[in-house]
Each structure stands twice: as C-alpha cells, then as structure tokens.
Amino acid sequence: MKNGESSERFDGHDAATPDLSVVLPCYNERVVIEESTAEIVRVLEATRLEWEIIFVDDVSKDDTVARAERLCAADSRLRLIRHPRNTGRGRTATDGMRAARGRIVGFLDIDLEVPARYIPPAVEAIRAGAEVVCAWRIYLPNLALLHREILSKGYSRLVRGQLGLPLRDTEAGFKFFDRERILPILDQSHNPGWFWDTEVMARAYFAGLRIVELPAVFVKRNEVPTTVRIIPDTIEYWRQLRRFRPEVRRLRAQHLQATLDGGSSPWAATIDDRAAWAKTITTQAEPLANVETKQP
Predict the structure, then answer these.
(1) How distant, in Å, are the alpha carbons of 39, 141, 178, 295 from that of 147?
(2) Cys bridge to 264: 83, 118, 171, 208, which one at CB 3.0-4.6 A?
(3) Whole-prediction pTM value?
C-alpha cells in the first residue's frame, strides 16, 4: 500500500448501488461514535432510502477504530476505511466520498453539532434538482456559543469579501452532493485540512453546480472538547484565503468565458421557507415528499 492511501474493510457489504452514502470522518471519536451512529441510523431507517455509512478514520489515538469495527460487524451497511497516516479533515472526507457508491453522497461531523435530522431535507433538495446542499448554521441565543457565532459570521464575511462567494456558511461540517457532479470537483481540490470546505464550495460554485444552503440549528455537544483555536485558526484561514485568491480569479475568468460560450451561470439559493424550517427543527425524522418514509 502506498503512503497516504487508504485501507478499507467491507464486512460483506452488499454490492447494490444505494440511494445515499453518508461519510463520517473520524479522529478520536470514542465519546460520540456509538451514540451518533445510532442516531444517524435511526433517521435513515425512518426513510425508504437504501443507504450506507462509511467511517473514515484519520489515525485516531483512542479506541475509535475498535468501536467502529464493532459497529460494522453488527450491520453490513456500515464499513470502515483506515488511513495509514493522519491527513486532515479534507482528505478524510474526500476519501470517503470517492469510496462511496450512493447516487447521493455527503458527510457530516460525527459530533452531530449539525443534527442528523437534516439529512432527509438535504436528500430531498438534491432530488429536486440541487447538486450541492450545505448546512447554514443557525446559532440560537446562547452566551456560551457567542464566540462560535462570531467566528462563523466573521469567516463568512471574509469568504464573501476575499473570494466573492455569495454563500453564508462554507465551513459547516454538513455537505451533501450529487455524486457524479462532485467527483470532478474533488479531483480539483487539493487542501487536505479544514480549508478544504471552502475550496470545494468555491470550485463547485464557479463550476456552475446548483448550490442550496439549508438552515440548520447548531447544537453544541458539551461532552466533546472544542478543537477551535480562535487566534491561530483565524490567522491560518486568512492565509489560506489569500493564497487561494489567484485560483478564484482564474476560476471566475474561466467560468465567464464558458458562460459567454453558452454554459450555465453560477447558481446558489437558500431554503428559507420559515414554516418548513420551524417544522424541520422541531421533529426528529421529518416525513418528506421526495424521501418517502416507512409507515408503521
């Protein structure tokens, strides 16, 4: 196995093409992996989707792998990919989506600070014609989360100002895609770390993919220690944005020429029906028109 490649365990996984592949990047997730997986399975089982879950472990130092292996052994729809060396969140999500077989593929942070109940609305949006669905995190009034909200909104302003993207939240750890449309974008994206989220969204936008932002209430998991470092992370994001700007200028010019030649224009929208939004955030597994739910 070459350095940087992934090893994969299939555990007898069925070869049929599922409707949906959910990728769970993992690094030291022993506190949440079992509870979060059970919640994701519960949400998915409430639909009529054929699905798979793919854990991608980025060389955890705790017993995350052992716990993931037990989960996979108990359910053939779950499988595990293990990195031989630590690569970062971007590479971890990418490897999972490349290994996925679902027509719709996506990932969410396994701490479920964007809850699993938003997966069915994301699938519905893609079936309705979107090609990218990204959570737009909504912070309810909470003094303990004020710094996270300030960072999120501040970074969104930087992204709009530096890159010219009309998106509210490129960094949310909840993104779902039309698999065929996102694979070429993944091939073009090179940042292996946290900036990968912004790079993928920028490349998708200037490639003309239809992007929908899904309002999602952010839920802080107090038992999970934060990895956010306010000053170092802000400085690093600024550096990455400045470094990426020449590429964005190239992408913008390239797409302008394609548009003049008859291609599609960049497209982004927000699911902003407040009645539907309020209903979604107060239910656990919302029955949806395009994602049929099982009847008791």
Answers:
(1) 27, 12, 33, 42
(2) 208
(3) 0.83
